[in-house]
Design brief:
This is Selenophosphate synthase. The chain is mainly alpha-helical and about 60 residues long. It has two helices and no strands.
Length: about 60
């Protein structure tokens, strides 16, 4: 379930061209190591969110700015 978003946000999130991006989850204590490994391969990693406990009263994906 995806929360409310504008048409522009939906196009950015659901664009087939962005579906090939790399998305990974890293434990907090392994973030620096993951970044170092990525840098050694000339890959920039950018944090875009965090995993939280599930709640039935909110969307599974929330678009934030």
């Amino acid at each position: 379930m995806i929360g409310e978003m504008t048409a522009r946000q939906r196009h950015l999130l659901c664009d087939p061209q962005t579906s090939g991006g790399l998305l990974l989850a890293v434990l907090p204590d392994a973030v620096e190591e993951a970044k170092a490994i990525a840098r050694s391969h000339n890959i920039d990693l950018i944090a875009i969110g965090e995993l939280t406990e599930p709640h039935s009263d909110r969307a599974l994906i929330e678009v934030i700015e």
